[in-house]
Amino acid sequence: MNPQFRAEDFGAVGDGLTLNTAAIQHAIDAAALAGGVLAFSPGVYLTGSLFLKSGITLQLDLGVTLRGSQDLTDYPLLPTRIAGIEMVWPAALLNVCEQADVRIQGAGQIDGDGKIFWDSYWTLRRAYEPRGLRWASDYDAQRPRLLQVFKSTRVSIGDGLLLRRSGFWTLHICYSSEVTVSRITIRNNEDGRGPSTDGIDIDSSSRVLIAHADIAVNDDAICIKAGRDADGLRVARPTEDVLIRDCIVRAGAAGLTFGSETSGGFRNIDASRITVLSAVPVGILFKSAPTRGGFGHDLRLQDFRLVDVAVALRITMNWNPAYSLASLPAELVDLPPHWRVLTSKVPPAQGMARLRDVHISRLQASGVQTAFEVDAYPDAPLQGFRFSELDISAQQGGHIRDAQDWKFEHCRLDLGERVSLAAADEVQGLPEGSWQVVSSLAARDVSALSFEEQDKQ
């Protein structure tokens, strides 16, 4: 049996007022040295950044809360990757950095108490936007993440854990492998709606399992990332061999997102049994920019259930240009180092992300406004997408542009009473032959549209 350690034996006080950073870190160091378990008596433990060490189990039982300090100086600046580039940034509240065999478990809470950081971000952004610096605001308004796994392996997180009110991203898994996240709840829309409070970001990492996550955030809920622009292309590290299953997304920008940091590429991603509810505008989202580059292939998404979302599938290769495309106003000369990184030029041919071999199957979507919003580039078409057993009820079909070799099998699109030839024609841009069955059925004004891709040679 692993040795047991108690945080209070090292001077930690769970009164919600005492700053416990040094006491808890001392307890972590002692428990890790013995390969032991660190537990806490019920209470609220105020703390700055903590650094877990190899071999430790951090046990946060029901009634235990680690609450983040609202003083940014309690989060030391360290080298990391943030929003796709490598730079110095405040440490997270809880950090697993260059460690192995770490467990964080229990039904307790890790609470970022992040509203003060959300407010500081909005103040900076309001000052930056009139100057054409929207792209820099996320990097300059330094906000601590809640939990960071960085350059680490064999890390396990979950067993009923509640993560809430993160100052920035909630759980960031970067340059890591063999990470398991199971049975966690994320709630970031308390005290307001925190900007960029992503749920789980898997960033240039491999052999990751995400299971039984219940997520309500104000940005991407589960997001696959791999670096931004010139810096991401320099690192060139993909996210690969990822399993995501049995998750529910109650609020966020999208249910499952790929990008916009696509530079290192994605491959062998398998997501299944994902439910996305009405407070989420997009079910499945692929996003990139013409300076990102990278690739995505062997992506398999199945058994999704979308309820009352605005768009079932959105693919945009020119996402949010004010944020994605960094350009300097002429009068700026004395630049922070990360601004130079963000504005490094990427050749056009290298900047186009390439997506291919994506299979989406057994997707059920009801109450949808638009089925498809798909836009890419003629020089980098979306290739070899396969759709099988889709069942979508939507107000309108939408559009699909710059698609090549897309195939639909045993799929159904229901436009309800609005079905007519004109309504079916709202879905534009598929290669010739894709919608032959749709058009003939729609001309007869039926409400259930089934379509099957024809051979396009």
From TrEMBL:
Please name the InterPro entries in this protein's record. GH28_Enzymes, Glyco_hydro_28, PbH1, Pectin_lyas_fold, Pectin_lyase_fold/virulence, RHGA/B-epi-like_pectate_lyase
Q: Name one GO molecular function term.
A: hydrolase activity
Q: Name one Pfam family in it.
A: Glyco_hydro_28
Q: Which SMART domains match?
A: PbH1
Concerning SUPFAM superfamilies, the annotation shows: Pectin lyase-like
| Keyword check for Hydrolase | yes
Q: Which UniProt keywords apply?
A: Glycosidase, Hydrolase
The Rhamnogalacturonase A/B/Epimerase-like pectate lyase domain extends over: 7-58
Q: So what family is this one in?
A: Belongs to the glycosyl hydrolase 28 family.
- Name it: Glycoside hydrolase family 28 protein
